[in-house]
Amino acid sequence: MPAQYAGGVAGVSTPEAHNVTPWARDIEISTTAHYHFEQLPPIYQLTNLPTYQYHQPTNTMERTVPYTASEEVELYLRTYYSLLRTTDAIQIRTLEEVHSGMGSLLHANARGEAPDMSAFIYALLRLPDCVRHVDEIVLGQSLAVFQQTGVGDVTQWEPVSAPARRRRCFYNPEEKIMACIIASRSDIDDIIPLLTAYQIEWNKLHRLLQHAPDEVRRPNLKDDAALAWKTHRKLAETLNMSVEDLERWRTVCGQDFSSRLREIQESRQHFRVRLLSGSLIEYNRATDAWWNNIAAEVPELLSRPIYFISSNTHSLTNLLSGFALLNKEEIQAFLREDGHQELVEEWNQIKAQEIPSSEENFLYYAFKKYLQSKKGPEVYARRNEHEADCGIVRVDSEHFFDVDMQSFSLSQLNPEWFDPRVTGDEEDLSFLQDSDAMILNIDYPLGLSAYNILMEVAEHVGKILGVYIMGKAATLNGVVGDVMIPYVVHDEHSRNTYLCPTAFSAADVTPYLNYGTVLDNQKAVTVRGTFLQNRTYMDVFYREGYTDIEMEAGPYLSAVYEMFRPKRHPVDEIVTLDKIPFDLGILHYASDTPLNKGHNLGAGTLSYYGIDPTYATALAIIRRIIHLEKERLVG
């Protein structure tokens, strides 16, 4: 019997009405498409009212909860999780075929003869540099796990890190082993594809270099100066890549480019990976240890009301401590003396109002450069002392998974030192002196560890007043630097679609954004990993109107559900969060455009222009907290 809708049944009654069910309205079901209705024969009519059969046009979005299970992606996941159950190390080469067959958007040319340099550079930036010398990678949830399984005290090894991925790793050069502390299975879904992509592309380059002409073979690759332009072009042709791709790779490698070429020419990669413990209890123990370290350093968190923020470790402190702004002459002098001529020129253009950039944002960017200079240790010490006077405490996760924490006691902050955009039109912030609230800010975690962390915090702090999630995302309809504010989040982990009340609108962010656009009323999807999407997968979400792709919001919202409901979060349901007893806001800024090849962080970094959306979203969060505190304290 055909689908039918009689007199308001199932959301559509007549061509004139075009009604939709309440939950459909909540997830932005469009009613602007041109639908076609046919009156059904009398045999199908259940009432005396006119009954219509609904035909959805093929060019409109699907009206179902998105289900994206890709057989190729699911096969890849099943393969490496089943292999990792062994107590021995697995060979990454056994995963190369299923990885390539997945058709990942980030590794679209995995099966091609030509190197996929976007995928290779993406992996280079997210794996420690020492990985090129490593034979075995060992994954464990805590330092204790490494010791209990016989790996040893990895803290005695060399600490190593990646430029674009926070993960605590240690390297043993004698045994060519790298140990990585993981916080959830999302780390596995990140590390395994990264290693596989790296190995596939390294070995492609190795094969191509075996046939390199004499002028680009090893004897002529002594240093970067030896690569004259003609040789540079010849090398690109030999490696079957564009000169632009070769230049990007060379920029990432820096002065070591020639030695990297020699290493690739001389040897293939044969990674092995071993997972020491995959149990949920070990992840929970690791999270407990992480929190206990914080509670010991800042015991006030256990009894005070809290605004929880997941962001980064620089924006809130810069905006609320004022240290960089108070020392702007010193920072400007550093730029001149250290030879940052481009930044000096940029500063002069900002002062002359020739470009729309924010003076404050520029100083924050320059301050980061200052901290990385030879004067860094002395500047760090002065900054920490200044922040302590402002009631700001930093707790580094030195012996745990790599998620640092900051706490801010609102009553101790000095409004006279605030970034002027924080104060805005608010002339009197003296009411903050009477506040008992604190801000707990964590360096945003990866994937499912967000759920574990927020649950741990909610179980132990005095009271949650607000939860604010700020972070990077990929966009399917915007450009790098845009800000997206979702009110619907589909979570690939729980398969839930969360309908979220949002504390923010475009008007809260736009005044502070100089280059991008603020897109509110968006729909986001939380994916399991950056490599674990292919074009079919993305097409489903794009047809459904999901254009904000990220990794943390879904797990955070699963924790939010359990913070006000008497049961564990559901699975595969549409979940409304409109009754939560605290403030909730999600702000994402676009760092990738995955449907445009090369337009992702593998092709570069956000650099100075990444500061713009970062501080625009941080300002919106801080101003929201000040507004809520004024209502709570003054009325």
Report on the structure:
It is a single chain. By secondary structure, this protein is α/β, with parallel strands linked by helices. 37% of the residues lie in helices and 17% in strands. A 6-stranded mixed sheet has the order 4-9-5-8-7-6. It has a 5-stranded mixed beta barrel with strand order 14-18-17-15-20. A 3-stranded antiparallel sheet has the order 1-3-2, with no helix packed on it. Helix 6 crosses helix 9. The chain is globular. It starts with a strand and ends with a helix. Mean pLDDT is 85; it is low at 1-63, 219-223 and 597-606.
Main attributes of the structure:
six-stranded mixed sheet, 635 residues, 17% strand, five-stranded mixed barrel
List the SSEs and their pairings.
Elements: E1 5-6, H1 22-26, E2 36-39, E3 51-55, H2 71-83, E4 90-91, H3 96-101, H4 117-126, E5 136-140, H5 143-148, E6 158-160, E7 169-172, E8 177-181, H6 185-209, H7 229-238, H8 243-253, H9 257-266, E9 272-275, H10 280-297, E10 305-311, H11 315-321, H12 323-326, H13 328-337, H14 341-351, H15 359-371, H16 376-389, E11 392-395, E12 405-409, H17 420-423, E13 438-443, H18 449-460, E14 463-475, E15 483-491, E16 497-499, H19 506-509, E17 518-526, H20 535-544, E18 548-550, H21 553-564, E19 574-576, E20 583-592, H22 611-633
Parallel strand pairs: 5-8, 5-9, 10-13, 10-14, 14-20, 15-17, 16-19, 17-18
Antiparallel strand pairs: 1-3, 2-3, 4-9, 6-7, 7-8, 11-12, 12-13, 14-18, 15-16, 15-20
pLDDT averaged residue by residue: 85
Q: Could you give the order of strands across the largest sheet?
A: 4-9-5-8-7-6
Biggest sheet statistics: 6 strands, mixed
SS summary, helix count: 22
The chain-level structural class is: alpha/beta
Q: What gross morphology would you assign?
A: globular
How far apart lie the N and C ends? 59 Å
Whole-number radius of gyration?
Answer: 27 Å
Q: What share of the residues lie within helices?
A: 25-40%
Number of strands: 20
Low-confidence stretches: 1-63, 219-223, 597-606
Strand content: 15-25%
